[in-house]
């Protein structure tokens, strides 16, 4: 038999936190209400918050009129101003 190795995605790590006693108790109480362990509750809560933060930065919804205006703006960017033109004329630091 060949032993299966865990892929990088399957490995687990740990996160150690120092929190105030009242915060720990609050988390424990909420976890108990849901029938979860503290770890399950904290991991699920942190994971959901992380997803929400990332989606908030990457996903937005527009009605059809606003979407059309957005696409028009992307399709016709403003002409480069003097500051951008000056920046593009500069020699990069790594080429000096």
UniProtKB/TrEMBL annotation:
InterPro entries: Ribbon_hlx_hlx, TacA_1-like. One of its GO terms (molecular function) is DNA binding. One of its GO terms (biological process) is regulation of DNA-templated transcription. Keywords: DNA-binding, Repressor, Toxin-antitoxin system, Transcription, Transcription regulation. Gene3D superfamilies: Single helix bin (1.20.5.780). Belongs to the TacA antitoxin family. This is Uncharacterized conserved protein, DUF1778 family. It comes from Stappia indica. The lineage of its organism: Bacteria, Pseudomonadati, Pseudomonadota, Alphaproteobacteria, Hyphomicrobiales.
């Amino acid at each position: 038999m060949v032993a299966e190795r865990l892929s990088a995605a399957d490995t687990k790590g740990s996160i150690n936190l120092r929190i105030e006693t009242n915060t720990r108790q609050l988390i424990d109480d909420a976890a108990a209400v849901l029938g979860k362990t503290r770890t399950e509750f904290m991991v699920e809560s942190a994971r959901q918050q992380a997803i929400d933060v990332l989606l908030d930065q990457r996903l937005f919804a527009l009605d059809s009129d606003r979407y059309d205006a957005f696409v028009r703006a992307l399709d016709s960017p403003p002409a480069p101003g003097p500051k951008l033109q000056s920046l593009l004329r500069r020699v990069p630091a790594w080429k000096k």
